[in-house]
Amino acid sequence: MKAVDSASKFDQDRAGEYAQQSRIGLAGYDACHDLAACLLSVTLDSESEAQILVVGAGGTAQEIVAASKLAPNWKFTAVDPSEPMLQLSRESLASKGLEARTELHLGYVRDLRTEKKFDAATLIGVIHHLQGEDKKKEILDEIASKLKPGAPIILAGNRFDYASKPLFLSAWGELWRMNGVSKEEVESKRAKILHGADPLASNEAVIDLLGSAGFIEAEQFFSSLFWSAWIAKYNPNQSQ
After folding, report:
1. Would you say residue 178 lies in a domain?
2. Which stretch is the leader sequence (predicted)?
3. How far apart are CA 153 and CA 172, in angstroms?
4. 146 lies in some domain
5. Residue 179 lies in a domain
6. Which one of 116, 141, 144, 233 counts the least CB within 10 Å of its CB?
7. What CATH code is carried by the domain that includes residue 12?
8. Residue 32: exposed, middle, or buried by beta-carbon count in 10 A (0-12, 13-18, 19+)?
9. Is the pLDDT of residue 2 over 50?
């Protein structure tokens, strides 16, 4: 799948329902973002004037909202290829008085025209939408090129082939039913993720992918059915 195809999935209709839907389909959505902010805070020092690269920031901008509660001096550069999703982030940030601390860029990391290196990066809810390992490594390589040595990255997304975990897949469907979705709608959602996403095969595959882009010492800090999150740090001497 080309990068543009990944972006096109998040059209006006999907963007409009993203905030609610993500909190159901990705159980623990808010807790994951809160923990990510806490880990970055203790890694970078919440009193610092760090510059954070937020990749795939469209939708809720929850990475920025959570981190801003701990780190009043951090500035954010948010990148997303979907205009409807980026607009949602713009509205969310404005409602919380955070627009002055954030630069929003429509497009991809490779489109950023800046020489500055960032102190940290986040890639949350993106990796499983990219088809094939080459596309996944490409985005991590692009992020790595924008980071200072030793900078932490937060990576969160789905892993495991969905069909390989029937118990998890059934529980995921029940989670939707618990939130008022009919059985017929659940089946439609299940069919959509089985054919529309490409999660990494295992936890080990995630760590290997991070390592191939120069991210070392990866530690998993959150897991919820298919959804999981890691923190790692950039070592340019380890990239392949």
Report:
1. no
2. none
3. 27
4. yes
5. no
6. 116
7. 3.40.50.150
8. buried
9. no
